[in-house]
Task: structure prediction
Amino acid sequence: MTQQTGTELEGKVAIVTGAGRMRGIGRASAVVLARMGAHVVVTGTGRDPDTFPQDEKDAGWRDIQSTAEQVESFGVRALPLVSNIADQDDVQKMIDSTVAEFGRVDIIVNNAAAPYGSDRVAVVDMDADVFKTVIDVKVLGTFYACRAAVKQMIKQGEGGRIVNLSSTMGKSGRANTSAYNAANFAIDGFTQALAKEVGQYEITANSVCPGTTETSRLDPVGRGDVWQDRLQSIPISRAGTDDEVGELIGFLCSPRAGYITGQSVNINGGSVTER
Result:
């Protein structure tokens, strides 16, 4: 059944990376952009279904194919692509495939990140390859995607929107999160620099910095004492939702946000208030 679609992004084409999880910011962002009228390319790594969390298995979730179906329920078109964001050739293929299918790229949301887990150790115990993987996916992947997308946006000559997913971990360092801290601090700085380069083309670039958010990415934390301790440190006393972050991203991709660029926008219930 087709749902009601807005016209704010009618005719626009968006790419959302890391959009295959049922409980995830990528999926939520893709759905919001579709609801606003954009056609959406959704990418993922091609996860093995055996690794899906139980709620995805119970729902018959099919990774980016299921996200694409949610996008298409708004009467717009979707293109699911398996893509390795840490491979610059694969990223260029993502852009080329988007242009071949839709003729343009107007929006890119860089949400892909390395899985939570083996990087959450003290620096003295950190495996260099693990650290490198976090940087390769988050930082280099965002760079590759922005570089390729900006070239296409400049060629089109009609402006564009870039939203890079960072984190509260890009604002405040914590023990045992050095790789993730480094990656997200880099995303915020990169985005600020990019915004100053592309503003002349009416392209905006912002980063979004979620705090604790109820997604499957944080399932390794569990929902026990560690989770409850996290919630107690949040003034609003709860985790955020993927839909709430998606709504913020949708706003930053809209014409209403045309004068907002170079910002790293917190959405964390007040847990971190640094700029």
Remarks:
- Residues 13-257 form a domain with the Rossmann fold fold (CATH 3.40.50.720).
- The chain has a mean pLDDT of 94.
- The longest helix spans residues 128-156.
